[in-house]
Design brief:
Two copies of one chain form a homodimer. The first copy, chain A, is α/β, with parallel strands linked by helices and 446 residues long. Chain A is 37% helix and 15% strand. In chain A, the strands form four sheets. Chain A has a seven-stranded mixed beta sheet. Strand 2 (111-113) of chain A pairs antiparallel with strand 2 (111-113) of chain B. Chains A, B: This is Alliinase, C-terminal. Chains A, B: One of its GO terms (molecular function) is transaminase activity. Chains A, B: Belongs to the alliinase family.
């Protein structure tokens, strides 16, 4: 201690301070009984048979009767076994793969908030979106400039409790308030499995799910959801209906260089983004919308005011610090910090190689083939390497989800995405241990 | 430096660490341009005429056409003047009054979260409410035990993005999913001004606002909202309809000892609480529900899953630390920490004395009179001292809100609460500077 102190500088103080903070946080988290083992149950670690019911219920769809079955969740969990009994849950897109990057970043991205801060409802009353933290808004603009995946000049930023809330805010803002019947909401199949249930769970008189955009033929106003790259299949998309009465909402949750080539800075009327899939911080529940029309942005803000009276300031401040770290990592040319997107790109590239090799070795599964494209951010061409694998079972296997379930691999059936049960969606974003176990087991299914 | 280091102990490290944290936070917040001045604009500090429009729009109601007027908000704000030109905005219940307590608590309640923590969607997959942080759940139970304002044994806890989201989750959970028409939602006037708009903004086919509970006569299922103590008038309430087909939701946002005597531990079927009005942390957007019926709790959880896929982990962890500090402050008998509720009680008692004196001096305003009751927590009898003053203008003044607006005092008209415009609701929770300015100006209106 004495020797340390003789060379005490502010830098040392900082290191000591942050070291202590880790201690406090760890102690705090341990007190919370949210041990790593427990946290992991939901997203891939060993669980008993009853846990397999869980993936059917949570985030699969909004049917009330389905939720009843999640009573099984509260049952106790068996001890881990590392062999074939271990259930691999890749039903959800829980982005825990990114934990290793942020652990390597150390305390540079630690957020510290005093008890007396951020108490007011208001963040910036001069802003149209009065609950948007200005520092978060600035970091959103910096990140899009750095990556080149979206234009921010001339756009209003609306923050949301994840992009799911912003999606509903967009439906509210774009629905004709005086219409005699709800406006149709469509998306090209395979579409994100939550769109139908999130659109219809309140039986709103403003909007109504109308299914696959390919088969939408009504000559009336409609809202088309374009997810690009697409969840579940990873392909780049454009609107398919293209009628005069249509309004398009672009979900760009996956338009980041670790998943797909950044071919142009997006400049559509209404674009949704989220930290869950860009930086991996799903637990923050933070998303943002870039909105061209002022009145639409105002109505989206009104929706979030009525729905949750704003968005957590704590998470906005933390998200600002995370986004700043990501932008900084892209500027660094020396060895000081690893470029976040290069880390993500390399990890996804390796995982897709592993998965394609396993599917080939098994011989029972097909994966989509993607044309390479040039990425302006990474200054090279590559094939998309999506956050989800859109797996198709071969031959006689009609229900791919049940087939994989029989091998204790939990995935999401194509049924939920409006297509055949021969398809399943598999998360590519889980921790290394789980992903390796998955590809190993898949390769041994013959 | 050298002398400090010779007596270096972990306690010193802690103090140094926390001292540095303050520095980091302050720097961080300053970078955020969310300066105290800006934060304050929305809740009472000096603003120009255009700002007066703001209170008409934000959190007043959900009418889309109203939100248009908030375009004025983005206009610039005039420099402060301390005299009569200064607009006093007490329309919202922004609980900034509590900042002084948490500032005095210092860094004891500082939250520190590393970049790699709380990344998963899941908090406790074994819990019915799978996104509820276990440490937060435990602190909720401890606080209710300490205060004695609610029973927690045999209840399920559901966390929400503020109690506004939980209110909607309750409507979703309690509505018959197969009903031919929406269930009626009622509350006795004067009722919380947001109930009608939050119930109807999506034109849900599940539930529909049916107005004042006193005039509800339909012989069909209904949901009655009972806010006790009531927002806006502060009176203790029970259900008024009392029919066999009714379901009651109790909003206990203000059932805390600083506002009203704690006469019994509440044990109703569905009870809502929020940190916004209990500890003053509105910016966290954290509330919780105590729910007796497992299926209702499961459906509320499903609503929040569909609405926002869970609740900010960062704010839950911070709320846990704040609730723990409140519970601890109630245990302390030495001078180490000030009892949070005694602080709040004394502050509210003083403010109500000031307000009644000012109303008396003016002679133009009436305030409700409350019967004293025994508080089991403070072990004494006292009269309720609500978070809002329900002010009635005397004689010829028919529109009290416009009258006070002409004196640059922004309040919320009785119209929004289902009663006469002779009434206004005034926030009692703003910072000392604003409250003192308010009572001074009120006393001079003759």
């Amino acid at each position: 201690m004495g020797r340390i102190s003789r060379v005490f500088t502010w830098r040392h103080f900082l290191i000591l301070s942050l070291a202590l903070n880790v201690g406090f946080v760890l102690r705090f988290v341990n007190e919370g009984v949210t041990s790593r083992a427990e946290q992991s149950i939901g997203n891939g670690f060993c669980v008993d048979e009853k846990m397999m019911k869980f993936s059917e219920t949570v985030m699969a769809d909004g049917e009330a009767h389905v939720s009843k079955r999640s009573s099984h969740v509260s049952s106790s969990v068996n001890a881990c076994t590392d062999g074939e009994d271990r259930v691999i849950n890749l039903d959800h897109g829980d982005p825990t793969m990114y934990e290793q990057y942020w652990q390597r970043m150390g305390e540079e991205t630690t957020i510290v908030i005093s008890g007396w801060q951020s108490m007011s409802y208001f963040s910036d009353v001069k802003n149209l979106c009065w609950f948007l933290e200005p520092v978060f808004a600035r970091e959103i603009i910096t990140l899009h400039k750095t990556v080149g995946n979206a234009i921010t000049e001339g756009y209003h930023i609306v923050v949301g409790t994840g992009s799911t809330q912003l999606f509903q805010a967009a439906l509210y803002a774009l629905s004709p308030s005086e219409a005699s019947r709800p406006i149709s909401v469509v998306s090209a199949a395979p579409y994100y499995s939550s769109y139908p249930s999130v659109t219809d769970y309140l039986k709103s008189g403003l909007y109504r799910w109308a299914g696959d955009a390919h088969s939408f033929s009504k000559d009336e106003p409609y809202i088309e959801l374009v997810t690009s790259p697409n969840n579940p299949d990873g392909f780049v998309r454009q609107a398919v209906v293209n009628r005069s009465l249509g309004i398009v909402v672009h979900d760009f949750a996956y338009y980041w260089p670790q998943y797909t080539p950044i071919s142009y800075p997006a400049n559509h009327d209404l674009m949704l983004f989220t930290v869950s899939k860009s930086t991996g911080h799903a637990g923050m529940r933070i998303g943002w919308a870039l909105v061209k029309d002022e009145e639409v942005a105002r109505r989206m803000t009104k929706f979030i005011e009525l729905n949750t009276i704003g968005v957590s300031k704590d998470s906005q401040l933390r998200a600002a610090k995370i986004l700043r770290a990501v932008s900084d990592s892209c500027e660094k040319i020396d060895g000081k910090g690893e470029n976040f997107f290069k880390f993500g790109y390399n990890l996804m590239a390796g995982r897709w190689r592993q998965l394609r090799a396993a599917a080939h070795e098994s011989g029972l599964f097909n994966l989509p083939e993607f044309p390479p494209a040039h990425c302006n951010f990474l200054s090279r061409a590559f094939e998309p390497q999506p956050a989800f694998a859109w797996l198709k079972c071969d031959g006689e296997i009609e229900d791919c989800e049940s087939f994989l379930r029989s091998h204790k691999i939990l995935t999401r059936s194509g049924r939920h995405f409006g297509v055949s049960p021969k398809y399943v969606r598999v998360s590519m974003l889980d921790r290394d241990e789980i992903f390796d176990l998955f590809v190993e087991r898949l390769s041994n299914i013959h």
